[in-house]
Amino acid sequence: MEDIRSELLRKSKKTKLEQRGKAISLLCISFIVFVVLAIFYFVASKGLATFFKDGVNVFDFLFGTVWSPGTVGADGKPQVGALPMITGSFVVTLLSAIIATPFAVGAAVFMTEISPSLGSKILQPVIEFLVGIPSVVYGFIGLSVVVPAVRNVFGGSGFGILAGTFVLFVMILPTVTSMTVDSLNSVPRYYREASLALGATRWQTIYKVVLRAATPGILTAIVFGMARAFGEALAIQMVIGNAALMPQNLITPASTLTSILTMGIGNTIMGTLENNVLWSLALILLAMSLFFNIVIRLIGKKGAIK
Length: 306
Prior knowledge:
The protein contains 13 helices and two strands; from the N terminus they run H-H-H-E-E-H-H-H-H-H-H-H-H-H-H. The chain has helices at 2-9, 13-52, 58-63, 83-114, 116-132, 135-154, 161-185, 189-197, 202-213, 215-231, 234-240, 257-264, 273-305, and strands spanning 67-72, 78-80. Strand 1 and strand 2 form a beta hairpin.
């Protein structure tokens, strides 16, 4: 009797395999969480050293307009104003998103609603190809084509926010387009059929029904594209001019958080003020990345509720 009971209570091979799989999955998830927390801790500890160790005022850092970490101003304080880079990053990101959004939505509508066969055979492979192009290639094209074009049309040196905007526009366009296509394809077919059955034209159905139903997904695509544009480093560094000055217009050299980071991080000594302020810029980038992810999740939840 005891043998039968122990046999019935003994775990089967499938149960053991399932438990082993759960343990491995939990271990992998725990490792990912640990890595993320370690990154946040490392960047925060380095970035906050500017304020706690070097005594830099947070207000002066965020809103100061003079960036010269190696010098001291007339007031005896280090000149580490990050506002020019913060402004440059936000301006170039917003402008590229504003330009890319109508092109992305228009291309996605054409691929899903007007000519799906042409979209799947030609446009989709082209978009996937654009996504796979390295950033340095975009930078070289911007340096060879965009910068001279801006110089010839608008004057100036050609380097500046406008050139950076055009380069980032091309870089984020395939990402926003692909995500918008997925959002439009996720709209149920019966939405379109019901609209057409009520007498709406195809364009009315697209505008009044399909696009409105896919709005959360489209907004997510736009925010995702902005997140990529905000964190882009190499391509924007090659065309923006890398001048740590407040942008006066769109055709004068400017800088972004990433361009200053990539130029300076290898030329400073760990633990010095010059190095710590660069980590503070990295902390701002990390905080903005977290902000973009929170916005994407909120938009996703809003769409799921609907």
